[in-house]
Amino acid sequence: MEDFLARLWENLVGRISGPLSFRLLLQPLVASVLAVRGGLDDARAGKPPYSWVILTSPDDRVKLLRDGWKSVARVFGFAVVMDVAYQVMVYRWIYPLELLIVAIVLACIPYLLVRGPADRLAAIFQRSRR
Q1: In this structure, are residues 64 and 115 in contact, taking their beta carbons and an 8 Å threshold?
Q2: What is the pTM of this model?
Q3: Residue spans per domain, the chain
């Protein structure tokens, strides 16, 4: 198990300086842009912050996660494709767990972290314009 975790950590850290490293900036940026768009839509509709509702409202959680997935699915898919290309180029093998970790970190987490604050900032800006 230690060997597995050591290899996993080494492979994940190796992506920082390896080929296709531009995606480590590009994919979270695209996910963040999509999250800002979602946050602006939420503010226009008067909805509460996305991440907060996911954490606190079990009734709305599934619907909101489905809505968020629709927005981030393409970026997630692109992250998967790019990581498969990276793994084939570097390791000549595909490690599915690493693939999922990288795709989630590059696409889903930035989306979840940005959408709620974008909603709040847009709502504050809308209130100040009135």
Answers
A1: no
A2: 0.81
A3: 24-129
